[in-house]
Amino acid sequence: MEIALARPKLISLAAGFTDSASLPVAEARALFDAILASPKTGQAALQYGTTAGDPVLRRLTAERLRAQDHAPRGSKLHAPERVIITSGSQQLLYMITEALCDPDDIVLVEDPTYFVYLGILQSHGIGARGVRMERDGLDLAHLETVLASLKRSGELKRVKLLYLVSYFQNPTGVTTSFAKKRATLRLLREYERAAGHPIYLVEDAAYRELRFTGEDVPSALTLPGAAERVIYGGTYSKPFATGVRVGFGLLPAAVHRVVMRLKGNHDFGTSNLLQQLLARALASGRYERHLEALRRRYAHKAAVTLRALEAHFPARAEWWTPRGGLYFWARLPHGVKSGVDSKLFRSALKHGVLYVPGVWCYAADPTRRKPDHELRLSFGGASEANLRAGIARFGDTLHELLDT
Amino acid sequence: MEIALARPKLISLAAGFTDSASLPVAEARALFDAILASPKTGQAALQYGTTAGDPVLRRLTAERLRAQDHAPRGSKLHAPERVIITSGSQQLLYMITEALCDPDDIVLVEDPTYFVYLGILQSHGIGARGVRMERDGLDLAHLETVLASLKRSGELKRVKLLYLVSYFQNPTGVTTSFAKKRATLRLLREYERAAGHPIYLVEDAAYRELRFTGEDVPSALTLPGAAERVIYGGTYSKPFATGVRVGFGLLPAAVHRVVMRLKGNHDFGTSNLLQQLLARALASGRYERHLEALRRRYAHKAAVTLRALEAHFPARAEWWTPRGGLYFWARLPHGVKSGVDSKLFRSALKHGVLYVPGVWCYAADPTRRKPDHELRLSFGGASEANLRAGIARFGDTLHELLDT
């Protein structure tokens, strides 16, 4: 991000920015206008809220999620009391990790995974083990191998949670199938006996609403045993406006209590005004209408990106085409390194293109080497023209490199 | 707060809410309207910002503080690069403590101090030592005694910072004199040699702008040696709108780097939209005009509170009259306990009045007993009528208790 800000002509396919042209400027204006039109609603929005979040937003969040999960009315897993509103889903991830893990603990992560989460782990001195990915989520056989090996080595008692970015994963774009969520939770519970404590399944659903093709998958909240073990995190920032930092979590009662205490210490509650903006956007239908338009927009940008990759990338490169979210994940032929010190990265930068090196997305797992020939391309922030131009330039760079 | 929310007829003199009727509803509406009138400024506000905060807000914050401190143009201590924007000043306090302290460390605090900060210390397993207060700030002789005793016991190496709420302190309303700030920093530096590391002076100036009488005191940033040792925290939430959570810190370069990393992990930046709201409020003069009105309003409410105390409190009770901020600090005759389990608290609650027991504001300092006959009364949230009625009822409760 620093490089991009310093060189405005650079085409950044790196940052997970959202599409500027599609931001809901008129919607936000109308919503604020309505909230601030009367002293009553205006004062309520400009005053402190409560630590857990605005009651209306908590209720709307729980109901929305219940509907997405096709859960019955009155579903206890989707009760408003289980909701906490946070400053983006990032803050939820931070607080959950702070609440559940001690230094030297181990977190299971997808291999690769969301690199900012790896930063959270690192800053707390928490270790990580990567579980290999398939096109429909975790490689279950590998998950079992990892758990069994941790059990053998006596390290299972340090494992507190598995972190899963379950929809259009950052960075791979992979969506975890429902069957795999079920099997994952079952495996974790099986190993709890040896661990001697709960092993939580943290489902980060940040990209869930950014689907542009196919059917939604129910969340892990609908699995048997989810009430005490599944932590669900979502966000309104990416689907609505990233400048509005409002995320949420649905937590088991015991975790909710601890995270509430942390939230009280962090900031005693996310901006009430922003929460009321979201509550009104949801209640008025503006959120949903905006989301529909956004999905079409991203579907189109993903298609533009795909066509550009097909036109400009060498045949020996591979990529995974996403059905939602903001990212393409690409693999270069082995031997073509993609890290910040690589020829490719420097050459791409010289051609004015920036990407996220795949190696950033791999945990420091002592049991394997980090792959270093992958990369993440974001189609969120760049304009269509820049997507085309950026990928063309990047393709040229790759051809040059492969030809020499 | 939970008690207050559950019993709407209760008069809460407890919560540090701000005055609802004075919240800048029309101002916020006009400001959002301007920001969101054009796609250009609207999109910029609804997109992600940077981790350190909006550059304009950082600059305006630094300039405003420089003017308040009567520092020369170009003052390095008031440089925009030293600013970080946070979700209220609370988040700054959290991150600074996280950055500088380890479990079992010791923080020096005013005795009494801001009780939410004590919660932060407790949640990190950090100890505290209280330094007695006088009407113009810390009792310097006691500070020296505490430091000397920590040195003797070999605990000085665990002392990382002194936390000072320097303007209209929460809970006592005391403002620290400039001479005391100077002497405090000098003492801390003197003991650094024995500590073997920096001991920071954290100046929490959350209430600085809520002055309604007398002259402002320059911040500790203007002291010799401040560049590497003083951490200054302020907020726009209390002076403007508590529903808008925007605070800030000015930090020594070494601390700034660490806190920036933490901020990236916590939430990678405070809501850009709220920051642009504040930047525009400051640049347009609306913030300053609102603040003037707010100061007059609080001055009036403080006067109402004082008259009610004089009329209804027993002669044997004492209180400190503040010159700014939101709180009166009262002392009951020894023997009249004020804690949540006390006769007084229960009786006040039965009469429909809530206050903050003084004991909450004392750190768990192993070297002294916590005083238990004090209380904090806030005049921020309650209406004038409720201030009068609440204090009258509370006075009756006290008279009953003292007469029996």
What does this structure look like?
The structure is a homodimer of 404-residue chains. Chain A contains 14 helices and 14 strands. With 404 residues, the first copy, chain A, is an alpha/beta fold. Chain A has 2 domains: 2-23 and 289-403, Aspartate Aminotransferase, domain 1, CATH 3.90.1150; 48-286, Type I PLP-dependent aspartate aminotransferase-like (Major domain) (Aspartate Aminotransferase, domain 2, 3-Layer(aba) Sandwich). The two termini of chain A are 30 Å apart. Chains A and B meet through helix 2, helix 3, helix 5, helix 6 and helix 10 of A and helix 2, helix 3, helix 5, helix 6 and helix 9 of B.
Please supply descriptive tags for the structure shown above:
homodimer; 404 residues; alpha/beta; Aspartate Aminotransferase, domain 1; 2 domains; eight-stranded mixed sheet; four-stranded antiparallel sheet
Cα distance spanning the termini of chain A: 30 Å
Report the CATH architecture of the largest domain in chain A: 3-Layer(aba) Sandwich
Question: Taking Cα atoms only, what radius of gyration of chain A do you get, to the nearest Å?
Answer: 21 Å
H and E string of chain A? HEHHHEHEHEEHEHEHEEHHHEEHEEEH
Helix residue percentage of chain A: 40-55%
Order of the strands making up the biggest sheet of chain A: 2-9-8-7-6-3-4-5
What is the oligomeric state here?
A: homodimer
What is the CATH homologous superfamily assignment of the largest domain in chain A?
Type I PLP-dependent aspartate aminotransferase-like (Major domain)
Cα shape of chain A = globular
H/I helix tally of chain A: 14
What is the mean predicted local confidence, pLDDT of chain A?
A: 95
What top-tier CATH class of the largest domain in chain A fits best?
Alpha Beta
CATH topology of the largest domain in chain A: Aspartate Aminotransferase, domain 2
User: Helix- and strand-based class of chain A?
Assistant: alpha/beta
Biggest interface reads: A-B, 54 and 54 residues
The major sheet of chain A is characterized as: 8 strands, mixed
